[in-house]
Design brief:
five-stranded parallel β-sheet; eight-stranded mixed β-sheet; binds NADP nicotinamide-adenine-dinucleotide phosphate; FAD/NAD(P)-binding domain; alpha/beta
């Protein structure tokens, strides 16, 4: 094995290799170390934190309540860490992940500035061999790609993107050095969750801000505030309850879908209820709304009209307001950006909105942006143009399984996985947060995925299996179940990363179903079924003789949350 030029991991052979030092990767490293494995973690960035390392753009902060986002696996950690705000900003979150890396003594196993470019399964000895960008090669029995669902930023395919002579940044590759907007003419392209957060910050000091919007979104007030000592104590005392609420809700948040139908209330009652939850913090308006707004067009039309009215009330110029009002999709069918005074910004003289549906961008020029209507000059262009979501982090690595099959090819018509964590033909390859897992409040799903993967590896160690592979029939069943189940949601008829669409990535214009939509409780029911069945209904296990082992005994159980809050894991409820 070739030794990496970078300081750090000198031994080329490991029991397990983890890719990525984000929320999933750090926890996975910790859990595998607990199993006594010799583990290496390779991270492309210069520090830990994953999404919260890369997305250091101005205004980046949680849209999930801080105390529902952090890990729940450690009582000590819950006791020790205090979030300063209900929706903490990126620097605090990055500090949190660094604290975790130190507290659990993870740094010695992590090598930063190490981008994994290739991973090949060796059938002769059932091990994975990986290569870094610098050519260094390492090998391990288990490979865990904790690459994250929103990892690979995408730039628009406009002519001239590289010709711009001013400053240009993507929100997900924001520099560490402070960037000033003072006195600058700034353009922001993109109005998703990242764009909306960036715009609010840039508008404070830029001499002018021009927002290039292709599809307007329905944005909802965040309702952020600082956490005082009394509330802090209350949060700590209530962690078990908070955790249970996250577990029981479909989205993994403290907000749960209202089981009532929109039509159970009179129009006055409905309006009053929406008015109330519109002003509640976080995702209450979206994920705490009536269940049928997600599946019934008539119900959705009513709430969409409420939201449109809100935008019109907040923006003074009716023409500008109309441009900000979404018309081609209903409320909640795409990720809802959260904001603090976003719409009111468009009342200020230094903020201009360009509607790209009326006047599309023709090209980026050395001095700015040319649309069908005008030539704009800027000092800075900010691309808040999103990600090659869910599969992008995997596609970036040349991953080859049995017979040299490339994962990217296997997934060319949409991802195929078993529970999002494994995929047939790629033995001993695990994906916390992989395609077709349940995604909601992302770390809640990741923590569960890591526990599931750890239990599976522990089971292999216990039974002395050297390889495990998902059964093709199990992954076909899960992929169909997950994909078919998504069709009932109105969001499946709308282009966004929720449906795998990215106009900037070749081959990603067709809608797919990249993640499981049935909610956390139902997802866990299926995972726990495979464990109860002793895994062997859904996986083939191989022992040294390279023969499938038919009846492994089951000893390991999932741990998620159980240890942390002093009770057994909740019985999941199908929903
Ligand atoms: P996004 O939601 O995919 O938004 C990308 C934006 O760029 C959209 O407005 C899109 O327009 C626009 N765009 C893309 N290509 C374009 C082009 N060629 N020309 C013009 N406009 C273009 O990406 P994001 O805002 O980075 O957010 C992605 C996800 O990250 C979020 O949904 C969320 O899950 C997560 N996130 C979380 C937080 C948080 O929790 N605090 C914050 C930020 C992001 P179209 O809509 O027309 O495609």
């Amino acid at each position: 094995m070739q030794k990496s030029e970078k300081a750090g991991l000198v031994n080329g052979k490991f029991d397990a290799i983890v890719i990525g030092a984000g929320s999933a990767g750090l926890y996975q490293l910790h859990r595998l170390k607990e199993l006594g494995l010799n583990v290496a973690l390779f991270e492309a960035g210069t520090g830990v934190g994953g999404a919260w390392y890369w997305n250091r753009y101005p205004g980046a902060r949680f849209d999930s309540e801080s105390y529902t986002y952090g890990y729940f696996f450690s009582q000590d950690l819950l006791r020790e860490w205090s979030w300063s705000e209900h929706f903490a900003a990126q620097p605090e979150t990055e500090r949190y992940f660094n604290y975790v890396a130190d507290k659990f003594d993870l740094r010695g196993n992590i090598q930063c500035s190490s981008r994994v470019t290739e991973a090949q399964y060796r059938e002769n000895d059932n091990r994975w061999e990986i290569a870094l960008e610098d050519g260094a090669r390492y090998e391990a029995r288990y490979l865990i790609a904790a690459v994250g669902p929103l990892t690979e930023p995408t730039l628009p395919a406009y002519e001239g993107v590289s010709s711009f002579a001013g400053e240009a940044y993507h929100t997900a590759r924001w520099p560490k050095a402070p960037i000033s907007f003072v006195g600058k003419r700034v353009a922001v392209i993109g109005t998703g969750a990242s764009g909306v957060q960036t715009i609010q910050e840039v508008a404070k000091t830029a001499s002018s801000l021009t927002v290039f919007q292709r599809t307007p979104n329905y944005c909802v007030p965040l309702g952020n505030s600082s956490i005082d000592d009394k509330t802090q104590k209350n949060i700590r005392d209530n962690y078990p309850k908070i955790y249970s609420r996250c577990l029981e809700s479909a989205g993994g948040f403290i907000h749960n879908v209202d089981p009532r139908s929109v039509f159970e209330l009179s129009s006055e009652e409905r309006e009053a209820h929406w008015e109330k939850i519109y002003h509640e913090p976080g995702m209450a308006m979206w994920l705490g709304n009536f269940h049928d707004i997600f599946i019934d067009e008539h119900a959705n039309n009513l709430v969409s009209e409420f939201m449109r009215k809100k935008i019109r009330q907040r923006v003074k110029d009716p023409k500008v307001a109309e441009r900000l009002v979404p018309k081609n999709h209903g409320f909640g069918t795409r990720r809802v950006p959260l904001e603090t005074g976003y719409y009111e910004l468009f009342n200020s003289p230094n903020v201009k909105l360009v509607d790209l549906q009326e006047t599309p961008i023709l090209r980026i020029t050395p001095v700015g942006i040319q649309t069908t209507d005008a030539n704009f000059e800027f000092d800075m262009i900010i691309y808040a143009t999103g990600f090659d979501a869910i599969t992008g982090g995997f596609d970036k690595i040349d991953i080859r399984g049995i017979d040299g099959t490339r994962l990217k090819e296997k997934w060319s018509n949409g991802p195929i996985t078993f529970l999002g964590t494994t995929t047939a033909g790629f033995p001993n390859f695990f994906m916390p947060g992989g395609p077709l897992t349940w995604l909601g409040n992302i770390p809640r799903g990741l923590e569960y995925n890591v526990d599931f993967i750890t239990a599976l590896i522990a089971h292999m160690l216990d039974k002395k299996f050297i390889a495990i592979d998902a059964k093709p029939e199990s992954e076909a069943e899960w992929t169909t179940f997950s994909t078919e189940g998504a069709k009932k949601f109105l969001s499946s008829k709308v282009d966004s990363w929720f449906t795998g669409v990215n106009t900037n990535v070749k081959g990603k214009q067709k809608r797919t179903s990249p993640f499981y939509r049935g909610g956390g409780p139902a997802y866990r029911v299926r995972c726990e079924k495979t464990i109860r069945d002793g895994y062997n209904k859904d996986f083939n296990f191989y022992s040294d003789a390279n023969e499938p082992n038919i009846e492994p005994e089951l000893k390991i159980s999932l741990r998620s949350g159980g240890d942390a809050i002093g009770r057994a894991p909740q019985k999941a409820v199908a929903g």
